[in-house]
Write the structure tokens for this entry.
Amino acid sequence: MTLCACQPDTQPKPKQAAENKTPVVVVVNYPLQFIVESLVGPEIQVLNPVPPDANPETWLPADAMIQTIQQADLIVTNGANFADWVKKLSLPRSKVLRTSLSLKDALISVPDFEVHSHGTGAAHSHAGTVAFFWLDPALMERQAEVIAQRLIQLVPQEKESITANLEKLKDSLKPLSQELDQLQAEYPGLHWFSERPVYQYLARRCGWTMHHLHWKQGTVPNESDWDKLKTMQREQKIPFLLWEHQPEEKRVEELAQHGVNSVVLDPLTMKPAQGDYVTEMQRQLVQLRQFLKQHQSETAESKE
């Protein structure tokens, strides 16, 4: 009896351990993090591996984080080549959800997405798909729907909760749609500059046209950059430029001398310092409408 009592419990319990494990869902940017966190509770761990001070488009994980990502239960990616690390890592295909696949009918391709040169060769361009889907709330809803379906497969016992949370998320996006409706009604047909292709989905939603300058983020525009802007200004008289981040005051003044007024609309690829995706995007859209109201005279001239 004593020997039996002292014998170790050699029966394996992998099934029980797996049942007690909290599933891990990895996301590539803040909008996807916001969607997943809106749909689930503590029954799922949501991991956005990108540090707060890093660019989620270009960040690359260290070896330890690579292992964590590869061992996750679900990896929610944006698609349209948004995150460099997704292209460079070997990820288990069965665990990857590429949300852009659910938006095939709505994707916007830009023929001259990236202009560059190799060595001493002439400058040339590459076509590409704009990746910032969530700037149109209708497309963000569709991303949320496909994510919800996959989460239900991951934790089927939470189907009722996830379905209810999906409806709450959709309701929370309605004020953003209303703001965009108002912008479209009050300022139809506007033409905008941007540094690069970012705002195409928002522009299409408002009936606007974007003209990207191919200005590299964080660099000072060179003489060739300014020449391109001046040429476009002579041809089309584009009155506004949307910035992803606050530009230097000197840059704002230089643009104003060429008849271009600047306004910032952060696409929120990273978590905002205050609030969440909905509250911060609504604040920015209200600010954008106030900006256009302030420059109504320039707007009227651009439509003539």
Observations:
- The chain has twelve helices and ten strands.
- Residues 1-18, 115-126 have pLDDT under 50 and may be disordered.
- Residues 159-186 form the longest helix (28 residues).
